[in-house]
TrEMBL record:
Xref: SUPFAM superfamilies: P-loop containing nucleoside triphosphate hydrolases
Protein name listed in UniProt: DNA polymerase III subunit delta
Database matches in Pfam families: DNA_pol3_delta2 (PF13177)
Lineage: Bacteria, Pseudomonadati, Pseudomonadota, Betaproteobacteria, Burkholderiales
The keyword Lyase is assigned to this record: no
Coiled coil location: none
Record PANTHER family: DNA POLYMERASE III SUBUNIT DELTA, REPLICATION FACTOR C / DNA POLYMERASE III GAMMA-TAU SUBUNIT
Keyword match Transferase: yes
Keywords for this protein: Nucleotidyltransferase, Transferase
Species name: Paucibacter sediminis
InterPro entries: DNA_pol_HolB, DNA_Rep/Repair_Clamp_Loader, P-loop_NTPase
A GO CC annotation given for this chain: DNA polymerase III complex
Enzyme Commission no: 2.7.7.7
Length: 340
């Protein structure tokens, strides 16, 4: 969102946002690209710009008008966001928000595990919202994130409105897995590609967020700054990342003991990926070449990769995280002994 200082929260969104605002021909845009580069922020900025009552040159939100103030306070009456319950809090749209809706309330009451899906209840509520005249007369905007979280029933319910939106209604959907959307949803949206940001912008932003040795974590996450920030917040440090390949080669599962299991498994998968590339003479993607032991063959690495893939599927609920990591690291040690 764009505040009164006129500064974008993610500087690399400036060019794609200007382009999207200038080229929007459809009432429904689909921001798509890799995760961790600001898709949700981009959808919000589109929404804020469409609702802004004093847009700057290039149709960009001003950050200061009454509409922008309401938007920044999550109180704009012509704006609605559809999120899975599991994401509401972390994205700043907690269950206490007015738009929290039926889903959030039932989730709170039943103390059920927050859903990762966008359900029919939320879409029904949106359909009600869509029918009311715009309170501020500018536009009505619905953001859907991540769009692939719409379950089939919810997606089908959304479809009709997406096809024939009432007068001022506009949509900004965002997805890192557009191929997982119903083709009928995809075909009704104008795609807005959002790729990896320029490295220097991403690094400067990470440094501004207090991430040390930002270039290491940025490379570790494949150039996705929001993911790098999340890793940092989870306690992953550059030094630990650089030491990881050799510690795994020595069988030290303690190298990963401070990391949440899904992150630890993702880290090992990236290590396997880089070692396999090395065995084919290709440069690594996630680690600097100097951090990697010299591979002599791919034997064992493929099997290790498959074991990691299996583990990743159950990473959210491992039966015994310590044992799991020990066994995965031991397997990696064997694979690297053969390979290195
Ligand atoms: Zn404004």
């Amino acid at each position: 969102m764009l505040g009164p200082d006129g500064k974008l929260p993610l500087p690399w969104l400036e060019a794609p946002l200007a382009q999207a605002l200038a080229n929007a021909r459809s009432h429904a845009l689909l921001v798509q690209g890799p995760a961790g580069v600001g898709q949700f922020d981009m959808a919000l900025l589109l929404a804020q710009s469409w609702l802004c009552e004093a847009p700057a040159a290039g149709k960009l939100a001003c950050g200061r008008c009454a509409a922008c103030h309401l938007f920044l306070a999550h109180a704009h009456p012509d704006f609605m966001v559809l999120l899975p319950e599991a994401l509401r809090e972390s994205l700043g749209y907690g269950a206490d928000d007015e738009e929290g809706g039926a889903e959030a309330k039932t989730g709170k009451a039943s103390k059920a595990k927050p859903s990762r899906e966008i359900k029919i209840d939320a879409v029904r509520q949106m359909l009600g919202f869509a029918q009311v005249t715009a309170a501020r007369g500018r536009a009505k905007v619905v953001v859907v994130y991540p769009a692939e979280a719409l379950n089939t029933v919810a997606a089908n319910a959304l479809l009709k409105t997406l096809e024939e939106p009432a007068g001022m209604l506009r949509f900004a959907l965002a997805s890192s897995a557009p191929e997982a959307l119903l083709p009928t949803i995809r075909s009704r949206c104008q795609p807005v590609p959002l790729g990896l940001p320029p490295q220097e912008l991403a690094q400067a932003w990470l440094a501004e967020q207090g991430v040390e040795a930002a270039e290491v974590l940025l490379a570790a996450t494949g150039g996705r700054p929001q993911e790098a920030l999340a890793w940092y917040a989870d306690g992953v440090r550059a030094q630990a990342w650089l030491e990881l390949p050799r510690r795994v080669a020595r069988g030290e599962s303690a190298a990963l003991s401070d990391w949440p299991v899904p992150r630890a498994i993702a880290a090992l998968q990236r290590l396997t990926h880089d070692l396999l590339r090395g065995s084919h003479g290709a440069p690594p993607s996630y680690f600097p070449p100097t951090a990697l032991p010299k591979p002599r063959g791919a034997a064992g690495l493929h099997a290790w990769g498959r074991a990691l893939q299996d583990a990743a599927r159950h990473a959210e609920h491992p039966l015994n995280a310590g044992l799991l990591m020990e066994s995965l690291v031991a397997q990696g040690q064997r694979a690297m002994r053969v390979a290195a």
